[in-house]
Specification:
Blueprint (H helix, E strand, L loop, with lengths): L6 E6 L6 H14 L4 E5 L5 H12 L4 H25 L3 E5 L2 H11 L4 H11 L14 E6 L2 H9 L12 H17 L4 E5 L4 H14 L10
Parallel strand pairs: 1-3, 1-4, 2-3, 4-5
Helix pairs in contact: 2-3, 3-5, 4-7
The structure holds thymidine-5'-diphosphate.
């Protein structure tokens, strides 16, 4: 299950970090360069995975159940949407991927990271241990102090199960993202999300240009 000609980019950060607006701008930038873009999200992206999303975001459950559901959703999403899109040479922009599981279920809920790694191997490869993991070529991480994110969320819509967690939960989740970044710094672009929308957007476009994914990035 290796990437072929397509480009797989994920977007991560704690709730309130402001990913959505920037994903739209990135999609437009790729389309302006003649690329076909698939915009999708996790948990979700297929009818089955969207159903699982509703359960994960709204129903109380233990951390193992939650982890199994997000990985089940991911498997369906990869098989039906991500892998076919990459095989067609499309740019896949995914609002969250497996780093979110390590950050939310692993760090946030304190679930066993070894089990998550096993699930990751099962779900993101062809099954045998020798096959490569499907991973984003780039993960844009919107890094924001949890106190700032919490203030932004207060003004947002009705909170879901995660968004209504206390600040301490997001401190831990933020630590989970930082740990993923330290493990694989070359895959991540760490964006300071505690700036104006315009400045954050410029940094996102610069990160894409630095990887030569966008040529002459229309950042401003
Ligand atoms: P989010 O991506 O922030 O969507 P919206 O902008 O519509 O609120 O919400 C998804 C939530 O799901 C977020 O709180 C993180 C959580 N999540 C997990 O706990 N584990 C996962 O593996 C993924 C992908 C998301």
């Amino acid at each position: 299950m290796q990437n072929s000609t397509g480009l797989f980019i994920s977007f991560e950060g704690i709730d309130g970090a402001g990913k959505s607006t920037h994903i739209e701008a990135v999609a437009q930038a790729f389309e302006a360069q003649g690329r076909s873009v698939t915009r999708t999200r996790e948990p979700g992206g297929t009818p089955l995975a969207e159903t699982l999303r509703q359960l994960v975001l709204n129903d109380p459950m233990d951390a193992l159940t939650e982890s199994l559901l997000v990985f089940a959703a991911r498997r369906d999403h990869i098989q039906r949407v991500i892998a076919p899109a990459l095989a067609q040479g499309r740019v896949v922009l995914c609002d969250r991927f497996t780093d979110a599981t390590f950050a939310y279920q692993g760090a946030g809920r304190g679930f066993d990271l070894g089990v998550l790694q096993t699930l990751e191997q099962w779900v993101q490869s062809s099954g045998d241990k020798a096959s490569a993991l499907l991973q984003p070529q780039l993960t844009i991480w919107f890094d924001l102090p949890p106190t700032v994110a919490a203030a932004r969320l207060v003004e947002a819509r009705v909170p879901d199960k995660f968004e209504s967690q206390p600040l301490a939960f997001f401190e831990t989740v933020a630590g989970g993202y930082a740990a993923r970044f330290v493990r694989e710094p070359q895959r991540f672009a760490r964006i300071n999300a505690n700036q104006s929308l315009h400045a954050v957007r410029e940094d996102v476009m610069a990160a894409l240009a630095a990887k030569a994914f966008l040529v002459g990035a229309p950042g401003a």
